[in-house]
Amino acid sequence: MFLPEVINIVGRDIKTLSIFTIIGLVCWGFIMWYESRKDGFRTERFFDLIFLSLGSGAIVFFLLRYIYDWATVYSPSHLILRLDKELLLVVLSFVFSLLPVLIFSKKWKWSTFRILDIYAQSYGLLLLFISAGAFLVSGQKEYIIFVSLLLSLYVSVLKFRGYKFSSGFIFSMFLFFLAVVGFIFFRRNGYLLYYPLLFIIGVVNLYLRGNKYMVKGNFPNQFVQNIKRKLLKKDAELAETQQELVYEDPYLQVDRSIGNSEFMDEAQEDMGKNITDAQIGFVEGLRLQVKKALAAINIGKYGTCEVCGNKIDTARLKVYPEATNCVECATDISQENQAKGN
Asked: Which residue of 3, 79, 201, 293 is surrounded by the most CB atoms within 10 Å?
């Protein structure tokens, strides 16, 4: 035990684990906002979705806790008491918090699978803080093992999301992870009910994800191969341009230290450096977009908008083969970026 169970703050006793939970919830909300913004979802609507999700989970959490506490006092033989209270509250409140996603993503014509991926990332960070707090309070090694494994998974997701992973896959991978790790390290009363439930939800999500692609249909193989050749050629050209810009970097010139003591020379050099860095950043952004399109081809989802999940118009792909958004979603993102720039 590294921390006491209760900490006195301004004359009030507060549970240490509650502090870690609050910090985790703040990070949960930030990741939800940041990832949704990066994926092009409308911020105000996504905040509505966050509050609805948090409200649904909270209602189920407190309702189940009330029922459990009532059964403890008034019905000691109640069936619910055979289940572990902590697992009961966490798993079911998590499951019910997903209901607003299923309802409003369809209503707003959003990609349910991309939203679920965002939820998986945010809930992963929340569990990191809660588990870290539980370890510091209880000293149980299972929690620090869980934190280490979850952190490894989280880093991998941040590195490859939107590049190697199809939308929806991260959510299922997160549930599979919880089911397997929980089955190994946290075998509490009712675990044979909770962990299979998470695993089944993950399998159903993958099935629906694959079924959606099959229903939409893919482009003809010849068309996709032509697009792939164009993208590979463009990536090679951008790589060459990027290398040339690096060679032109004023700070990397061999004779930089010779005759460079004048203030005007240094100012001109700094300006050239800023311009070069901006150009390199622009080229890197283009290369990233090309790589995302190539990754979409490799995982079989090329031509599907990564925001709304609808099919991208063929004419748009012919003109702009690295497109990963339909015209409507690309316009929304562009207008949002312009508004931020103003």
From this structure: 293
> Measuring CA to CA, which residue among 185, 119, 186, 112 is closest to residue 157?
119
Three-class SS of residue 165? strand
Query: In terms of domains, do 49 and 114 share one?
Result: yes
Where among 195, 216, 237 does a domain terminate? 216
pLDDT in the model for residue 63: 95
> What sign for the dihedral angle of Cα 155, 159, 164, 168?
positive
In a shared domain, residues 16 and 52? yes
- In contact, 102 and 112? CB cutoff 8 Å: yes
Note whether 30 and 114 are same-domain residues. yes
The predicted structure's pLDDT at residue 93: 92
pLDDT (0 to 100) of residue 342 = 44
Query: Does a structural domain hold residue 1?
Result: no
CATH of the domain at 329: 1.20.120.910
What single DSSP character describes residue 80? G
* pLDDT of the residue at 207: 85
Q: What is the pLDDT of residue 221?
A: 72
Q: Is 213 helix (H, G, I), strand (E, B) or coil?
A: helix
Domain count for the chain, please give it: 2
Do 146 and 61 have their domain in common?
yes
Q: What is the pLDDT of residues 245-287, one digit of tens each?
A: 877 766 555 455 555 555 455 566 667 677 877 888 888 888 8
Q: Nearest-CA neighbor of 216 among 299, 297, 301?
A: 301
Question: Sign of dihedral through CA atoms 131, 135, 141, 145?
Answer: positive
Cβ atoms < 10 Å from Cβ of 327: 14
Q: Residue 130: which of 149, 155, 147, 145 has the closest Cα? A: 147
One domain for residues 122 and 19 = yes
Dihedral sign from CA coordinates of 125, 126, 127, 130: positive
Last residue of a domain, one of 166, 192, 216: 216
Q: Please give the Cα distance from 250 to 157 (Å, whole number).
A: 36
In the chain, which stretches have pLDDT less than 70? Answer: 1, 40, 160-166, 211-218, 249-270, 272, 299, 332-342
Would you give the DSSP letter of residue 12?
Answer: E
